[in-house]
Structures are given as structure tokens and as C-alpha cells.
Design goal:
Two copies of one chain form a homodimer. By secondary structure, chain A is mainly alpha-helical. Helices cover 65% and strands 10% of the residues of chain A. Chains A and B meet through helix 1, helix 2, helix 5, helix 6 and helix 7 of A and helix 1, helix 2, helix 5, helix 6 and helix 7 of B. The structure holds a DNA duplex. Chains A, B: This is DNA-binding transcriptional regulator, MarR family. Chains A, B: Keywords: DNA-binding. Chains A, B: One of its GO terms (molecular function) is DNA binding.
Chain lengths: 153, 153
DNA sequence: TAAGATGGTCAACGTGGTTGTCCAAAACGT
DNA sequence: ACGTTTTGGACAACCACGTTGACCATCTTA
């Protein structure tokens, strides 16, 4: 029956990867070749309001240390900046720089474009259905950022 | 306008991850707690006929060294064994052990079961459609094993 | 005020991937 | 046949990311 059970996860992943690669190929073309798939999710988790390393770790399902390290990299690349919280000397607020916000904005646009391409290929209604079915099946589950460690380590 | 473009990749990934986690949770219960998501794909790439490190690397889209390292780990865990090729003293044939074949077999069964659960939830026809649409959109693309490096590194 | 919780950083370690280098064995070409 | 590639494997160095454990400064709370 139906099809081989191996196919489903494979196809889901290939779809995921193509979208992510599509966005990063375009971002690279627009002057952000250093960004990795990982970073896009970090940007989104930081959001326009900013966060702290601990909070970021919680949102992404990794340790505060791991979140801190990723932030270090992003800071070095100029996408993020840290400042001390005037109300709490322990906290360091993390904010996207203008460059960071730009990436966030462009990513959203490019994802929308890619989605539109998919819609053009299989039909907008089918794509909506696909997405809806996926939500039905997977439920409300948060995205975990520990992909490298999860998959391999 | 339909939905947020961010949702699509997220949902695809969550679906992928749930299936993979489902399989590995069950495998862990059945005596294979050391296996990582990565390994499942390696098992499948090795197949019942076996391969070599170089060939495995090609199939999975990683360097022969990376493939070799992964094989080292699997060998240490007793899922794989190497033997010299009688016709070519350079080659080392890699084969699944009985334990390895067992995992491969069970994985396929569990994937089928999980797929059946999905079918029960959204309908078998919808799931078939979903899979078909995914194939239409993503085309015939091979799975790359370099997920850790791809995502994060 | 003393005790506890919280935010951040450093260090050590493990896994995975990459490139570069080397060697032995097979394949090839003249 | 013999010298020259090519090929399979292994080793080393290096980078990215994840984890846990420890430590300190600061805020909270009893």
C-alpha cells in the first residue's frame, strides 16, 4: 500500500531544505553570504523587540550557553548587538541591528515568494490544504533549534 | 493572502522531526537507544548489499572522510562490520550486521505505522495527495546527509 | 540581612563536517 | 612490462554547534 513509509519523512525534509536553501541563496546574493539556515530561526526568535540569551535558549529549546554562542557569532557578523539592561545589571539585551532587521524582513518576503511558486505549481488551494493537513497532523509544536545536535550528535 | 510564508518550512520540518523522533523513540524502546536520526539514513544508504565508505559518501552527499567517521561509530556500536574485498585489497566492504538489518527492517515497519497514523488523522487520500504534491513541488532530489553541517556549520 | 534564584561567561568534551596530505593497491597507456 | 595516474582509506588539523558543570555578580525573597 500506498507508498513506502520512508518516502514521507524524506519528502518533508527535502521540501524544508529546498525552501531554506532558496531563501539563503537569495540572501547570499543580496549581501548576506555568511548566514546559515540556523540563523534565520534565531533572527525570528529574537524578533524586533530583542531578547536575552537565556530567553532565546528557552524559545529555541537549547541551553543558554548554546544560545549565547550563536549570539556571539551573529554579533561578530554585525547582525545583532548587546546592551546592558538599565533595570537589571545582570541582563544583556540582545537586539537586531538594522542589518539584522533587513534580513528578517527580506526572509519573510522571500519565503512568501517561494510559497507562491509552490502554489503556482500545485495550485493555491492544494498548498493551503497541504499546510492545513500538516498542522492537523503535527499539532502545535514549537520549533527546536538543536537541529545539528538532534540529528547527528 | 493565504498564510505566512514562514509557516510552510516550519511545518514541513516539524512533520519530519516528529516522524523521525517517533521511529527513534520506538527503536530506543526496542533496545537501540544509541541510534541517532542520522544513522537511520546511513542504514538505508548501506542497504542489505553493503557498500564502501567512498560510495556511501557519494550517496549521502558528504565527503568520504565524513562517511568513514560515521561508519566508525556504527561499527563501534555493532551495527556494521567491515571486511576486505577479496578482489581489491584497497576496498573495505561495509555490511550491516544482523543487528543492523534488524534496525533497518523495524524502521521501515515503524515508518509505515506512523504513516498509517497520519492517514487515520487526515484521511488516506489526503495523505497520498500531500505526498504527491510534495513530490511534484520538490522534484527528484536526493537526500543529503550533511544536515548538521548544512544547518549549523 | 542572609539565603536563594537568575543571567552570563568560561572551560571541557563529544559529534559531525570540511579540507589537505599520504600511502598502498588497482587501472591505464605507451 | 613498466611507469604513471586514479582510487580507497586513514590521519591530522580545524571549525561549528550542542551538552554539562562550575563560578561570579546581581536581583529577589523570606
Amino acid at each position: 500500500m500506498s507508498s513506502d513509509g520512508f518516502l514521507l519523512p524524506l519528502r518533508l525534509f527535502v521540501g524544508f531544505r529546498q525552501l531554506i536553501d532558496g531563501v539563503h541563496a537569495e540572501l547570499a546574493r543580496e549581501g548576506h553570504p555568511e548566514l546559515r539556515p540556523l540563523h534565520g530561526f534565531v533572527f525570528q526568535a529574537i524578533g524586533r523587540d530583542g531578547t536575552t540569551a537565556v530567553d532565546l535558549g528557552k524559545r529555541l529549546g537549547v541551553s543558554k550557553q548554546a544560545a549565547g554562542k550563536t549570539l556571539d557569532g551573529l554579533e561578530r557578523l554585525g547582525y545583532v548587538e548587546r546592551s546592558t539592561d538599565p533595570h537589571d545589571a545582570r541582563r544583556k539585551l540582545v537586539r537586531l541591528t538594522d542589518r539584522g532587521v533587513e534580513v528578517l524582513t527580506r526572509s519573510a518576503q522571500i519565503f512568501d515568494e517561494l510559497r507562491a511558486e509552490w502554489a503556482a505549481r500545485i495550485g493555491a488551494d492544494r498548498l493551503d490544504e497541504l499546510e492545513r493537513d500538516l498542522v492537523t497532523v503535527t499539532g502545535a509544536e514549537a520549533f527546536r533549534l538543536d537541529v545539528p545536535g538532534w540529528f547527528g550528535g
